Amino acid sequence: MTTSYLARRMERARALAPVVVLAELAGWQLEMRPDSPIRFLKDHRYTKAGDLLLVPLNAKNSDERITNVLAKARCDGLAPGMGKTNDGRDTMYISIAVWTANGIDWHRAWRLWAAPSTGDLWFVPDPDGEDRDGCCFRFGQQLRAVNEHPWADFAERDAGLLAADLLVADRLRKLESARPIDGDEGDE
Questions:
Q1: Do 78 and 66 meet the contact criterion of CB atoms below 8 Å apart?
Q2: What pTM was computed for the model?
Q3: Is 188 exposed, middle or buried (0-12, 13-18, 19+ CB in 10 A)?
Q4: Exposed e or buried b per residue across 51-74, where buried means at least 16 C-beta atoms within 10 angstroms of its C-beta
Q5: What is the Cα Rg of the chain in Å?
Q6: What is the pLDDT of residues 93-116, one digit of tens each?
Q7: Where are the alpha helices (DSSP H) in the chain?
Q8: Which of 39, 40, 18, 20 is nearest to 29 (CA)?
């Protein structure tokens, strides 16, 4: 194996890690969909339970390409990736693509939020993002948009964002130490 091959595999595993973490948190079984238009997206995963496509954003999976495939497949999509908050903390950002008969509605740079009292998970607008007053999505077997925020005040919002960031960091550490996550030895 060459160094560049190993570097590509490591980069691929890092890109797929947020996909795997979201699936574990939701209890989704992930599969490939070689029989559908989705097969044209690199490293896609699909869950029947939520009729959702999960795909890391990367150079081969541009927004335009994901939009075209989701429209043909008529399903919603999540495109997670790791990033940094304005204060430098590691966080998972999720772009949410909702399929409608009129096309794909994108909700970009949403974050995972964990209810401090119950641990329920939501996708919420980034408080430092452009659409901070956008809808929230209840996270679970199905993706459901809700117009109300799940927190009572800004302190609870911030506590939930921090709790979710810590949860994701813990899952990523466990995933990294447990096994390779791409599982596609010969796929290049």
A1: no
A2: 0.84
A3: exposed
A4: ebbbbbbbeebeeeebbebbeebe
A5: 16
A6: 999 999 888 989 999 889 999 998
A7: 3-26, 63-73, 154-178
A8: 20
